């Protein structure tokens, strides 16, 4: 495995300050948080969220920053068909029973297929945080819709999915991460080198799994890593659009 299944670190988060600027709309048949509409449809970023989902304030604030700084239209779709995120670790197995990966794979594929038909973007980038990383990687293969992707502290990704990548990938990783461990980082790096896909991997000291979305930004190390991850992602996508 390139990353393990979600665990306790996936259901603990600190709320960030600020108020979301976008609004919820039906896009490609799915309830979606939309921001940066003034930037048009040429360059679109789709964020596939962590297990907290598309209604989580922090995810919306990240989308707003991408729209503001990168001049993208940014879409944050519902991956769980209206389901609420698990309240704690003990509810994760039940949540996955209701929302199996096969269903989310279908939702993402159908969403992006319809989005391409409706919006006809010139560039479509994908971001995957934790739970969403698996599905971003699936859509960065030969038959996928993303032109480039960026993921942070991924979960559930198999090494076979990494081997199937054909599009550029940026990986942002935490020093302390029981899900995307040191050994799995090394295995992922070796695989990306072997298949010769364009990649960048950044490792942030002093932070743990989930830092890019739900980290406690009163901690200077977490604040730096969260902000640097976002600026790295912006710089990454600017290379390919």
Automatic annotation (TrEMBL):
GO molecular function terms listed in the Swiss-Prot or TrEMBL record: hydrolase activity
InterPro entries from the UniProt entry: AB_hydrolase_fold, Dienelactn_hydro
Top-rank taxon, per record: Eukaryota
Sequence ranges assigned to domain Dienelactone hydrolase in this UniProt record: 31-239
UniProt cross-references to Pfam families, sorted A to Z: DLH
Xref: SUPFAM superfamilies: alpha/beta-Hydrolases
Protein name: Dienelactone hydrolase domain-containing protein
Native source organism of the sequence: Cerrena zonata
